[in-house]
Amino acid sequence: MTVSAAALQAFRAALGPQGVSDDPDVLAPLLTDWRGVMTGRTPLLLRPSCTAEVAALVQIARAHHVPLVPQGGNTGLVQGGTPAEDGSEVLVSLQRMARIRALDADGFSMTAEAGVVLADVQTAAVAAGRMFPLSLGSEGSARIGGLVATNAGGVHVLRHGTMRALVLGLEAVLPDGQIFNDLAPLRKDNSGYDLKQLLIGSEGTLGIITAATLKLVPAPRARAVAWIGLESPANALRLLAHVRAASADQVSSFELMPRVGLDLVLQHIPGSRDPLPTPHPWAVLLETTCEQDVLTDALSHPSVADAVIAASQTQADALWRLRETLPEAERIDGRAAKHDIALPVGAVPAFLDAAAVAVEAILPGARVLAFGHLGDGNIHYNVRRPAAMGPARFVEHIPSLSAQVHDVVTRFGGSISAEHGIGRLKRAELARLADPAKLSAMRAIKAALDPLGLFNPGRIL
Ligand SMILES: Cc1cc2nc3c(=O)[nH]c(=O)nc-3n(C[C@H](O)[C@H](O)[C@H](O)COP(=O)(O)OP(=O)(O)OC[C@H]3O[C@@H](n4cnc5c(N)ncnc54)[C@H](O)[C@@H]3O)c2cc1C
């Protein structure tokens, strides 16, 4: 289906020359997804500058039956924010809506428009003596609307939760063109269904988010970062339980990395070095907001094979770099079948054993790289090709391999998407594996709120 000339003319008239573009140079970076797997087309880019303009463009889309794809920083990893290949969808970039509308340091809240970059929110919070605790590898590009729409997580979820726990209020334009205004920074609100929470994580399928009121926390008074060598993920979990108790639950990050992951970083990332003198099968990067002596005591636990505590900010940054550059090192090493999965925290070690057996059975010699936010039960379970297999043949195996991994995840009571969402990439797997009652309720909600099916069609459902 093509978008009619009348619809395009109406969009141009409503948004003015600043608010639209069909310049190929402007469009190019917005049409290919972050991983470079798909490139879409759009007849016109819409760039509204305020909520009223978003509402106006939604009314035009309704009148002309035009599907809309909202986009923030285009860092999403499930192909949800790039338009379809056939040019039938109009891309709506929220990047011009980049104002911080209010910051209340005493009330620990900030209202930011959808196009504000996460790093700018963090900086504004620090300038006010506060912290916005969402932190992730894409924070220099990802924007508030996208982060809310995907219920983003990151490295501080263990302590502060995902976006669901960090959004106090929301403003969005619904598919019927109404502006849902719920920006008040309420800590309690039991007045019926929570539409705000429904929109969080809806990936643009139920509303276009235009602003959010975010929860701030006090700036931490201390920070201690350690790199710990261990024998096994089971030992890592024992340590996590111990440090949480010993520090009065001040663990903000607990990141697991296997030796094979550290080796990839040492091989591909210039300037990186092993923080410990001898190799260990597993490592944990631990960050707490307790004083260093509390951490030193906690690390005398028998599950620790060896450990080093950063003595300076520079050393702490160097330890974090080992974790943060792992995806880049992996990318340099070649294509992998990637799975962003969540499990009950205590089930992670048994899952890793069972999944390794399943992967070996379906693709002998395949190399597993499982790492991530162990404290949240969120593992990035990536599988690289067997050494003897060419990349093209490996790509053919990815769908059956992923189905196998997802089956094991489901058997252990886990989720096939911990933090990246469903988008288009995991839609078929969600339909295959989700609880039928949940799926039919989701379809009913989508049909009720977006009966014309114009908001990010084909994503999630
Ligand atoms: C290097 C790297 C590291 C990452 N690390 C993490 C991580 O640790 N944790 C994590 O959770 N994610 C991570 N991600 C994924 C990604 O950054 C997040 O999903 C982020 O929330 C996407 O924000 P964005 O502004 O780029 O959204 P986009 O990519 O532009 O959009 C993502 C989805 O949200 C929808 N959307 C965008 N804006 C709006 C809006 N205003 N209203 C309604 N729908 C909208 C889009 O249609 C799309 O479906 C990482 C990505 C990269 C590239």
Descriptive account of the structure:
- The chain is α+β, with helices and mostly antiparallel strands.
- 37% of the residues lie in helices and 20% in strands.
- The chain is built from 17 helices and 19 strands.
- Strands 12, 13, 14, 15, 16, 17, 18 and 19 form an 8-stranded antiparallel beta sheet that branches. The chain has a 5-stranded antiparallel beta sheet with strand order 5-6-10-8-9. A 4-stranded mixed beta sheet has the order 1-2-4-3, with helices on both faces.
- Helix 10 packs across helix 13 and helix 14 (348-362) runs antiparallel to helix 15 (391-411).
- The longest helix is centred in the C-terminal third of the chain and has 21 residues, at 391-411.
- The mean pLDDT is 96.
Helix/strand-derived category reads alpha+beta
- The helical percent reads 25-40%
Low-confidence stretches: none
Kindly estimate the percentage of residues that lie in beta strands according to DSSP.
Answer: 15-25%
Largest sheet: 8 strands, antiparallel
How far apart the termini lie comes to 20 Å
Mean residue pLDDT: 96
What binds here, in terms of ligands, is: flavin-adenine dinucleotide
Briefly summarize what is shown:
The chain has 17 helices and 19 strands. With 461 residues, it is an alpha+beta fold.
What attributes characterize this protein structure?
461 residues, alpha+beta, 8-stranded antiparallel sheet, 5-stranded antiparallel sheet, 17 helices, 19 strands, globular, binds flavin-adenine dinucleotide
List the helices and strands and how they pair.
Layout: H1 5-15, E1 20-21, H2 24-31, E2 45-46, H3 51-64, E3 68-71, E4 90-93, E5 100-104, E6 109-113, H4 118-127, E7 130-131, H5 144-149, H6 157-160, H7 163-166, E8 167-173, E9 179-182, H8 195-199, E10 208-215, E11 217-218, E12 224-230, H9 233-246, E13 251-258, H10 259-268, E14 282-288, H11 292-298, E15 306-309, H12 313-324, H13 326-333, E16 336-337, E17 340-342, H14 348-362, E18 367-373, E19 378-384, H15 391-411, H16 427-433, H17 436-449
Parallel strand pairs: 2-4, 3-4
Antiparallel strand pairs: 1-2, 5-6, 6-10, 7-11, 8-9, 8-10, 12-14, 12-15, 13-14, 13-18, 16-19, 17-19, 18-19
Helix pairs in contact: 1-3, 10-13, 14-15
The structure holds flavin-adenine dinucleotide.
Flavin-adenine dinucleotide binds next to β3, α5 and β10.
